[in-house]
């Protein structure tokens, strides 16, 4: 069964769209039609600061709702912070939504009894640690290990990045007893296979994990009818309130919430 999946890089530039799409093309199922997009210019170009993360909220959430209205089966929020994942699931009524950290932790906790997360900078650790516990994987966390390379510089010198990853994975495996390593940024793409062959532990790529998890959740919905429960955490906002308060007009998204 054909399915459409949208991968959103939640930043204000399209630098990585083509590369991410090409990278994932050999990992997607044959029946998956994958599109990679990003947000509009003028928004932050990375989300290393919480302020930047908050600034993209409205554009990201409304792009996700638009994707559902356009008939996409799933949407991936392409940032390891998993920004606004809960809100995205609230506003969707039939489309699957997932994100890298959630997907990587589900996979990593199945492949081993502990994992370390390889992050770009120490700055990112507190929020990512909150996410580990929010997603319910605190007992699996061996450590965070930092490359101290900003997101925008990860691919400038791939050999240097790979060497730093190698150094920190060695510490994670030997000192922290990590059985699995999660790559804590989508721009750490292209390195996982060589590193896992070298260290003989699963190294979970932050682009592949949410793609495969999205396909898995789509299949569960298609074949078993399993979808996000609307009885509690993912209960959606009331369309009557959205209309009454003029939210569509204020944010210039007329028609997004139906008639």
TrEMBL record:
**MF terms per GO, please?**
amino-acid racemase activity
UniProt superkingdom? Bacteria
Q: Locate the coiled-coil region(s) and give their ranges.
A: none
Cited InterPro entries: Asp/Glu/hydantoin_racemase, Hydantoin_racemase-like, Iso_Racemase_Enz_sf
Pfam families, alphabetized: Asp_Glu_race
- Say which family it is in: Belongs to the HyuE racemase family.
Please state what the protein is called. Allantoin racemase
Classification of source organism: Bacteria, Bacillati, Bacillota, Clostridia, Lachnospirales
């Amino acid at each position: 069964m054909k399915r459409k999946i949208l991968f959103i890089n939640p930043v204000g530039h399209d630098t990585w769209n083509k590369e991410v799409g090409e990278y994932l093309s050999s990992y997607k199922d044959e029946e998956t039609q994958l599109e990679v997009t990003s947000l509009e210019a003028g928004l932050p170009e990375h989300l290393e600061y919480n302020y930047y993360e908050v600034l993209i909220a409205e554009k990201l959430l409304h792009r996700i709702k638009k994707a559902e209205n356009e008939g996409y089966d799933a949407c991936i929020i392409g940032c390891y912070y998993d920004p606004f994942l809960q809100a995205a699931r609230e506003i969707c009524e039939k489309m699957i939504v997932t994100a890298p950290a959630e997907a990587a932790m589900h996979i990593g906790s199945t492949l081993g009894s502990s994992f370390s997360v390889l992050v770009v900078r120490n700055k990112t650790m507190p929020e990512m640690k909150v996410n580990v516990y929010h997603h319910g994987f605190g007992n699996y966390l061996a450590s965070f290990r930092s490359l101290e390379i900003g997101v925008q510089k990860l691919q400038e010198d791939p050999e240097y990045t790979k060497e730093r990853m190698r150094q920190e994975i060695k510490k994670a495996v030997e000192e922290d007893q990590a059985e699995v390593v999660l790559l804590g940024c989508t721009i750490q793409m292209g390195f996982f296979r060589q590193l896992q062959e070298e260290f003989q532990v699963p190294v979970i790529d932050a682009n592949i994990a949410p793609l495969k998890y999205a396909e898995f959740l789509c299949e569960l919905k298609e074949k078993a009818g399993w979808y996000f429960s609307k009885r509690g955490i993912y209960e959606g906002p009331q369309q009557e309130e959205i209309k009454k308060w003029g939210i569509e007009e204020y944010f210039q998204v007329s028609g997004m919430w139906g008639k």
